[in-house]
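USER: Please consider what follows.
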Amino acid sequence: MLEKHSFSLSGHRTSVALEPEFWAVLRAVAARDGVPLSVLVARLDAGRAPNQPLASALRVFALRSGGGRP
């Protein structure tokens, strides 16, 4: 089941639905970096390619951050 979280990005509200496992990795990275989850998501949003959906960018980042390891 997907978990939905809402964020304010570039002055507008948006919701992102991801699997709980991806949110867990993103929360762990945010905690490691000492920033709120919303700040991490805003950074990733600002750095993604214009044609890449935010949910996809978050999943790829989570996998590259070690979330894909067993």
Remarks:
- The mean pLDDT is 93.
- The longest strand covers residues 3-9.
- Residues 22 and 60 are 9 Å apart (CA to CA).
